[in-house]
Write a structure and sequence with these properties.
Keywords: Membrane, Transmembrane, Transmembrane helix. The chain crosses the membrane at residues 30-50. The protein has helices at 2-32, 34-58. It is mostly helical. It has one domain. It is 79% helix and 0% strand.
Amino acid sequence: MYNKTLFLKIKYIVISISIILKNISYQLLVTLGCGGCFLVFFFVVILYTLMITRRIIVFHPIVSDRPAFLG
């Protein structure tokens, strides 16, 4: 039961981060054009790979409210 709620929290955090990044990328697309879009895409890819690798390395079952890979 605990793991399910933890997974839902992680899913909610990832969804909200991606929504924020999508809004920022739309703003940059309007202001900077195609180069800005490519830059944001590159940044998002780096961010997701960092999150996934940190989750694999740091994530272990700790009884706490927040996931371990967020700090």
